Amino acid sequence: MRDYAGAKADASLLDWLLRHHRSLLTADTHGWALVSYALLATEQSLRTVTWMKDWRTRTDAPVWALDNLAIALRTVGDHETAREVSLRALELSPNNLDARTWLAVDAAREDRPEELNALLTEIDPARVRPYFQNLLTLLSAYPQAIPTGDSTP
């Protein structure tokens, strides 16, 4: 399901699966997590957030699914909950570089340069996926821009 339903740009198969098998997919955490991937892969961030609204009660949620939720939450502008999700993902997997990078984004966004610098020293850019490498490049320049005033939106 994940490979095909998540790859359909129109998401019609995913819609059908959710209409006809919602209870089965929500009953099983693995199915629930796979749906989060498919929703995010079809660029349905708000729907991903709605689908995963019970994430706090799913103590067995895989870290990668929490990472999906954090991305969806950030996309819809709920940075506070996204930070909470990233902290939970990092708690479950202390070496989760995606979560750590998102927390660095939060530190920059919320003007916490000391926290940002601390997080950046904990992340090896060579060990993250390309998207995050680019993000880390931008984040590493941010503390240098603050004193010059170049960080003002």
Explain briefly what this protein structure is.
The chain is 69% helix and 0% strand. It is mainly alpha-helical. The protein is elongated.
Estimate the helix proportion, in percent. 55-70%
Which ranges are low-confidence, i.e. pLDDT below 50, for 5 or more consecutive residues? 1-8
Largest sheet: none
Query: What's the mean pLDDT score?
Result: 87
Which radius of gyration do the C-alpha atoms yield? 17 Å
Roughly what fraction of the amino acids lie in strands?
under 5%
Record field, number of beta strands: 0
Termini, distance in Å? 42 Å
Summarize this structure as a short list of keywords or feature phrases:
153 residues, mainly alpha, 9 helices, 0% strand, elongated
Describe the structure.
- It is a single chain.
- This protein starts with a helix and ends in an 8-residue tail after the last helix.
- The chain is mostly helical.
- The protein is elongated.
- The model is unreliable at 1-8 (pLDDT under 50).
- It has helices at 2-5, 12-27, 29-41, 45-51, 63-75, 79-92, 97-109, 113-121, 130-145.
Write the layout of secondary structure elements.
Elements: H1 2-5, H2 12-27, H3 29-41, H4 45-51, H5 63-75, H6 79-92, H7 97-109, H8 113-121, H9 130-145
Helix pairs in contact: 2-3, 3-4, 3-5, 4-5, 5-6, 6-7, 7-8, 7-9, 8-9
